[in-house]
Specification:
2-oxoacid:acceptor oxidoreductase subunit alpha, Rossmann fold, Pyrv_Fd/Flavodoxin_OxRdtase_N, eight-stranded mixed sheet, 2-oxoacid/accept_OxRdtase_asu
Length: 581
């Protein structure tokens, strides 16, 4: 079942939607919530969509069962999404004829929402609380879940009087909805008592993973949709012992992170495509000085400012090839909150073990979409801390020769010392350099240092996981994707199998160094391969062709700033398959 609450910016769709999602999560249900908002503070059309199920859900849906418009624009924009038998919960005075709804088989649920909000709570601003409470009433969600969330949300932030007023509004609206419309409404919710679950988005999961990895520094310039990574860490900075620095621009942010890492702490920054563009020269500095660096790129639709609050997967090749010259880097592309957590801690191991920049690519959808999961899915027992070839004080005390920051080694990884020890002068520069870090222009040393750095790429490739394969080896159709296409592709596979097709799914969550041999092994005998991406050019398909020579001509591409749904993917795959029967 899917709920959608919509209105203008400032009407509370986001905060109310999060509260309702929390109530559903506490009822033991699978929840996937997606916030959709315009790039403005007031006005414009925003909505919060919540999909709920008795099983785990990892994608949004085309179909809406309960629409809750706080303004007429929401009805006009989304009425066509409401399924027959669904409902539109609206204020008594909303100016739309009931016949417009009933003609589509949709039930008008008219409740005096603003009157209830004013009478019970003293302010019409609580109309969003009233609307969601009616939704709970007609679908059978027990009121105690709504009440407890209101108390938790408002009692802690705004005091008991505000909480009591909202509870009174919710109770009156819930009772009226349940009494007047509940018996005849066909879609119901059945709580499934279970142990406490976590409601979390991808950015929070990355921050959680970074904290587990021992990150002690994050510097960033606020840029949608990466900002909530910093917000999560800032709210816990004292407990975690992490410095959170908001900078004047992205160049400062990345250089501060490089400086912190050079000094010896695990450091990161986070941005989106526009900010990452400003960081390009500094990424080269990290590579040349062999300073570990973790960068999160929460992608959004470009170029330039583009669509600041919309999603896209268009920075893949940018992350793989950016900066001056050639150097090794790792690109992680998590597709679920569990993978975001893993990327959050694994990125630091890659960065320090190989002394390279590491990118975590997410997108707007993954950054803001919330999902209910069992906390045990974040396997803290799996977390390891690998700081690479890091010299201890004992190592440094025992040296008989001078310390060489860029020492030539068979692995390409030089022993790393922290600045400050009396026996180790840690010197480096952005110029090509000798082993001791002093600048050099000699051709022979240039080749030796370049070869040394690039040897690390082969080593890092051995640590890359995946791609993951779900489904039968003898599939009729193979769906290929990366990052946040995982959820909708995973569910589309189930829909297609219900049609009698045998379908498997190849998912890339750690992208570079690219697992070419594994890719060839998987795809060489595939009957029909479909590449599915949220970009215009099919960037993963281009990478596969570049690295293996295998062409993927069949593509489902989306670049309107909105995430895929499972229904959408299944429909387009069916159309393509039937066209070649």
């Amino acid at each position: 079942m899917t709920f959608k609450l919509g209105g203008e910016a400032g009407q509370g769709a986001d905060s109310s939607g999060h509260g309702f999602a929390k109530a559903l999560t506490r009822a033991g249900l699978g929840v996937y919530g997606l916030q959709d908002y315009m790039s403005r503070i007031r006005g414009g059309h925003n909505f919060f969509q919540i999909r709920v199920s008795d099983r785990d859900v990892q994608a949004t849906s085309d179909a809406v069962h309960v629409l809750m418009p706080l303004d007429l624009e929401t009805v006009n924009a989304h009425l066509n999404e409401v399924v027959p038998g669904g409902a539109v919960i609206m204020d008594t005075h909303m100016k739309i004829e009931d016949s417009v709804l009933t003609a589509r088989g949709v039930k008008p649920v008219r409740v005096p929402l603003s009157e209830i909000a004013q009478r019970e709570g003293g302010s019409k601003i609580m109309i969003n609380t009233a609307s969601l409470s009616v939704a709970a009433g007609i679908t059978g969600l027990p009121f105690e879940y709504i009440e407890q969330v209101i108390i938790d949300n408002f009692g802690n932030r705004k005091g008991s009087k505000v909480a009591e007023a909202n509870v009174a509004v919710a109770r009156a609206a819930y009772d009226e909805g349940a009494r007047e419309y509940g018996p005849e409404f066909g879609f119901k919710i059945e709580p499934r008592p279970t142990k406490p679950r976590m409601l979390i988005n991808g950015n929070q999961a990355i921050a959680f993973g970074a904290a587990a990895a021992g990150c002690r520094w994050i510097s960033m310039y606020p840029m949608t949709p990466a900002t909530t990574i910093t917000e999560w860490l800032a709210a816990r900075h004292k407990k975690l012992g992490i410095v959170v620095k908001e900078c004047e621009d992205e160049i400062t942010a990345v250089l501060m992170a490089i400086g912190a890492a050079h000094a010896g702490v695990r450091a990161m920054t986070a941005t989106s495509g526009g900010g990452l563009s400003l960081m390009v020269e500094a990424v080269g500095l990290s590579a040349m000085t062999e300073t570990p660096l973790v960068i999160v790129d929460a992608q959004r639709a470009g170029p330039s400012t583009g669509l600041p609050t919309r999603t896209e997967q268009s920075d893949l090749q940018f992350a793989m090839h950016m900066s001056q010259g050639e150097f090794p880097r790792v690109v992680l592309t998590p597709g679920t909150v569990e993978e975001c957590f893993q990327a959050g801690w694994r990125a630091f191991n890659f960065a320090e073990k190989y002394q390279i920049p590491v990118f975590i690519l997410t997108d707007m959808n993954q950054s803001v979409a919330i999902r209910a999961i069992d906390p045990d899915r974040f396997n803290l027992g799996e977390v390891t801390i690998d700081r690479g070839d890091l010299m201890t004080d004992a190592d440094l005390d025992g040296m008989t020769e001078g310390y060489l920051r860029h020492k030539l080694t068979p692995s390409g990884v030089s022993p790393r010392a922290m600045p400050g020890h009396e026996k180790a002068i840690v010197f480096t520069t952005s110029d090509e350099h000798y082993e001791d870090g002093q600048a050099v222009e000699e051709a022979e040393m240039r080749v030796l240092q370049m070869d040394k750095r690039m040897r690390k790429l082969d080593l890092a490739a051995q640590d890359i996981r995946g791609p993951l394969v779900e489904g039968p080896e003898d599939a009729d159709v193979t769906l290929v994707g990366w990052g946040t296409t995982y959820g909708p592709i995973h569910e589309a596979r189930v829909l297609l199998e219900a049609d009698g097709l045998k379908v498997n799914h190849v998912h890339y969550h750690e992208m570079w160094p690219f697992p070419a041999a594994r890719t060839e092994q998987i795809l060489k005998n595939a009957r029909r391969v479909v590449d599915i991406e949220n970009n215009y050019t099919g960037q993963l398909a281009l990478v596969i062709r570049m690295m293996t020579g295998m062409d993927l001509p069949n593509k489902v591409l989306k670049y309107d700033g909105r995430p895929f749904t499972a229904d959408e993917i299944a429909r387009k795959v069916r159309e393509g398959v039937m066209a070649h029967v």
